[in-house]
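Protein modeling request. Please complete all fields; requests missing the sequence field cannot be processed.
Requester role: graduate student
Desired output: 3D structure, token encoding
Chains: 1
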Amino acid sequence: MDEKKIRENYRKLTLALIEKGLTITTMESATSGQIASLITDTEGSSAIFHGAFVTYCNEEKIKRGVPAEIIEKYSVYSEETARAMAEAVRRAIPSDLAIGVTGTMGNVDPANAQASCPGKVYFAIALEGKTYSYQTDIPVQDSRLDYKLLVAEKIYEKIIFLM
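Delivered output (163 residues):
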């Protein structure tokens, strides 16, 4: 994992969004705001980034528009929940592109122990009326930041592919 490269890629992404006049927002759980932080590290990002939600617990996801039925049926750790997160934040903070990310990093989540699988992360990207969802496995990392940055890198790669 190359933190400097990941930060540079997000700088390029932010500049490309500014140039295209496309807005972006996030609803993050596993990455706890890391994606939003990477986007807003670039000067001028306020032109394309209007807000985000960090929703660590299920109740906050539901309050922000994720249907409880989705979490109950598929679990909080699922592509379906990631899709619902991206769509909910896009409705709450209208944007051209929205990201939802959920999953378990290095340890089992005691609040969702049955659904928790360390290293399994789900994310979704809502763009142009469609929502694309993904699952990825993150190997054991030395720190929480390393987990977050690796997930951010995977999300960046998919955004670039979709744009």
